[in-house]
Amino acid sequence: QYKMINSYSRIALLNPENITVSGSLTYVADWGIQYYLVILSNHPVYALVNGTNTTLITGWYNRFDKIIIENISYYVNNTVRYSIYNVTLLSFRVTSPLTVSVNYKPEYLVNINGKSFWAFNGSRITLYVETPFYYTVKWIGTYNVPNNYTIIVHSPITERAVYTINFINIISIGSLLLALISILTNIRIFKK
Fold first, then answer.
1. What is the mean pLDDT of residues 127-140?
2. Given the DSSP bridges, would you call strands 149-152 and 91-93 parallel, antiparallel or unpaired?
3. What is the DSSP letter of 27?
4. CA proximity to 72, closest of 58, 90, 59
5. Are 138 and 159 in contact (CB under 8 A)?
6. What is the full DSSP assignment across 90-149?
7. What's the pLDDT score for residue 165?
8. Please, which residues have CB within 8 angstroms of residue 73's CB and are 6 or more apart in sequence?
């Protein structure tokens, strides 16, 4: 039982009762304003509505209902899940008709040098480790790329840094040192 105020607001009976009258009876009707909420999402949205866990769906909600959208991920497997990427409102009180948009996006498990974390599809990750001049780093795994390379996440990723000796740098530095020693020795000889 309700009386429409407009398409998205109404006054509704909040305590409807089936009453059979067989004598005197007192019934106090509790009327309240309700607003229509439109919930847009590509996955079910779970929320606490006045502290009660529920699936948040498009429909009528009482004025001043407290709604907290829960950040729940949907696991496809142990390396892929869907998580909330953006949401128009995470926590709010119903005070007017409203459209709430909750967008879920795939996240992939990324493992870099044994450390795992979740990254949204399309995220950029730069594979980089600081190394001394006598080492070269190459990343081995999903992509097999050089150090300081940026990858874009489109699937689960595993990469580990592999260090190899950089003989070119060692020989170059060694040659420079030998040339410097030779120059300094020659300068000493000429000063005598």
1. 90
2. unpaired
3. -
4. 90
5. no
6. SEEE--S-EEEEEEEEEEEEEEETTEEEEEETT-EEEE-----TTEEEEEEESS-EETTE
7. 84
8. 81, 82, 83, 107
